[in-house]
Amino acid sequence: MAARNNPDIDNDADADAHGGGVQSVDRALQILEILAREGDAGVSEIAEEMGVHKSTASRLVGSLVNRELVRQNSERGKYQLGFGILRLASSIPGRLSVVHEARTVLEALAAEYKETVNLAVLRSNYAVNVDQAMGPSTLATYDWVGSLTPLHATSSGKVLLAALTTDERSQVLKAVGLPARTPRTVTNRGELEKELLEVAKNGFAIVHGEFEIGLTAVAAPIFNHAGTVIAAISISGPAFRFVPEDHPGLIEGLREAGLTISAKMGYRPR
């Protein structure tokens, strides 16, 4: 017990050993946050701010250096964020840029069809809405941005599901299942697969009250330069006034909007 209270002994290493890797991961992320905030810092400074032994900080910094997430400034001996951070960040520019490139298209659709228009991407086995343009109707007031919605029960989700390989789709559906959101939700895997084939063939998906009773939505895909579906654009509205199939040109207009955004992302139809 005396050794645990000795400031010259690295008790943090023992704690890491008994606490598993979660504590080490949390501390490594804390180091990255410190360097992001300060610009650079020495091991002693990092250890002091974290409240850990210097050897613990040194060990964690060393691991980050090996992964090129942190680099040492040879002139001052302090540490800075490394170029490995850029490699990690390079996985998300497509999503970030598609929001930027889609904005004017979303606004134009919302103004033309007077309903809510959303942009969604696949994240953590759900369709997450990353941008929205509101129609002029006073009923279209719900903010969907940031909302995670089930793939099998939404138009955007079905577009994103249809673009996955069979194995990828199986992994997603195994993880989240096919829970019924309303009596209209498709909960049979075989029925869903048939529907997804039509979605992929036709280039759009429509849902009537599958996610919420009284809510209708239609979505179309957005492609990147490689022809991969990276997002879905949708129009939604209350069922009593919004029936996409009966609205001349709406579905084709939505598909064209998706292709317009896709072109901005470098997509060229083959």
In short:
The protein is an alpha+beta fold and 270 residues long. It is built from ten helices and eight strands. It has helices spanning 11-19, 21-38, 43-50, 54-66, 84-89, 93-113, 155-162, 166-176, 189-202, 250-264; strands spanning 70-72, 79-81, 116-123, 126-133, 148-149, 205-208, 215-223, 229-238.
Main beta-sheet strand count, sense and barrel state: 6 strands, antiparallel
Count of the separate structural domains: 2
Using the alpha-carbon principal axes, give the shape: elongated
CATH superfamily of the largest domain: GAF domain
Strand content: 15-25%
| Secondary-structure element pattern, one letter each | HHHHEEHHEEEHHHEEEH
The top level CATH class name of the largest domain = Alpha Beta
Count of alpha/pi helices = 10
Please provide a written account of the structure.
The protein has 270 residues and is an alpha+beta fold. The protein has helices at residues 11-19, 21-38, 43-50, 54-66, 84-89, 93-113, 155-162, 166-176, 189-202, 250-264; strands at 70-72, 79-81, 116-123, 126-133, 148-149, 205-208, 215-223, 229-238. It folds into two domains: 3-89, Orthogonal Bundle (Arc Repressor Mutant, subunit A); 93-264, Beta-Lactamase. The protein contains ten helices and eight strands. The strands form two sheets. The protein has a six-stranded antiparallel sheet with strand order 5-4-3-8-7-6, sandwiched between helices. A two-stranded antiparallel sheet has the order 1-2. A hairpin with a 5-residue loop joins β7 and β8. 32% of the residues are buried. The model is unreliable at 1-9 and 13-19 (pLDDT under 50).
